[in-house]
Amino acid sequence: MKRKTNIMIWSILILSVLILFSCSFPPPQGVMNIRVSRDQYQPLLESSKFAEYRGQIIIFDSIDIDARDVTNFYYLNEDKTVGYTLFYKSDGIQQPVVSFFWYALQKTFENIGIDVRERGLIKNAAQLNLKIIALTDQEAKFIVSLLRNGYLIMQKEIIVSKKFPPTKDDSELKKRAYEFIDHIAATILSDPDIKREFFSEKGKISLDKSIPEIPQASSAPVTEVPGSSLVPTPTVPAPTTEPERDEVVNEGQKDQLEDNSLKQQSRENEKDTPSSAEKTY
Questions:
Q1: Cα pseudo-dihedral 236, 240, 242, 246, rounded to 10
Q2: What would the pLDDT profile of 151-188 be if each residue is shown by its tens digit?
Q3: How many structural domains compose the chain?
Q4: pTM of the full predicted structure?
């Protein structure tokens, strides 16, 4: 009976989630609704302008939102006459604002050659977090946080602004929405503070930080072996013609040698001393 109840609860929850995501959450009545889809977005940034980022790893951890007049499923223009609803595909289900912008910016970053990772710590890789604090179709404000190895190395507010002439044309508004995503990515990557800290040594961990110190090898040169950790290579003194073995005998060996010598001396004394049967009176 209990098992049947659990199955019913899970079925209801799954059904509720499916219904939720199959629903549409349009802007208020009277507001022009522009449907923007991730699959229709094609980044147009010139990768040559961001060549220094090519091959770099970015851990794009998350996008959060804390903005007025921005719901989970759409945002508005400045005068609140046009709303933008976001979708995975043109004919697919509606997508939350933060999820849409995460995947859209991921698409832009990868298009210019950045290796985007979703989560986790990668040694010395930069981690990017964004918080949307204001968003319209012509201006966005973000709190950009840059971390490395779990340490915050920079945080600042970025304002992205691009003015467009007024229009009510559906296709033109869609085109501008995609263009604005390009502008957001370009503004973040071009910011001098973000660029400086991204390529700085701040927060980086040295490769041999976790290697324990090896006694009597502190001044030894370090040899790097590809694919392995850095290990100190002890300096070997030049061999002499006749090494003196007594100088390398440790204390335990000395005690053992002394003990053996005493035993040998005792046996020799016993040989020199006549037994009681051989004594003369």
A1: -50
A2: 999 999 999 999 999 999 999 999 999 999 999 999 99
A3: 1
A4: 0.66
Residue 144: CB partners within 8 Å, gap ≥ 6?
128, 129, 130, 154, 155, 156, 157, 158, 188, 191, 194
- How confident is the model at residue 68, as a pLDDT? 84
Asked if residues 199 and 152 have their Cβ atoms less than 8 Å apart, the reply is no
Total residues belonging to the chain:
281
Q: Does some domain include residue 263?
A: no
What pLDDT score does 23 carry? 53
Q: Which residues pair with 130 in a beta bridge?
A: 63, 144
CA distance 139 to 161: 4
Q: What is the span of the domain harbouring residue 138?
A: 31-198
- Domain assignment present for residue 182? The answer is yes
Least Cα distance to 109 among 67, 179, 50, 26 occurs for 50
178 within a domain of the structure (yes/no): yes
Q: Residue 226 has which token pair?
A: 């590809």
pLDDT tens readout for residues 19-71: 344 456 777 889 999 999 999 999 999 999 999 999 999 999 999 999 988 98
CATH no. for residue 86? 3.30.160
Domain-located, residue 156 = yes
Kindly report the number of other CB atoms within 10 A of residue 149's CB atom: 15
d(CA 113, CA 80): 36
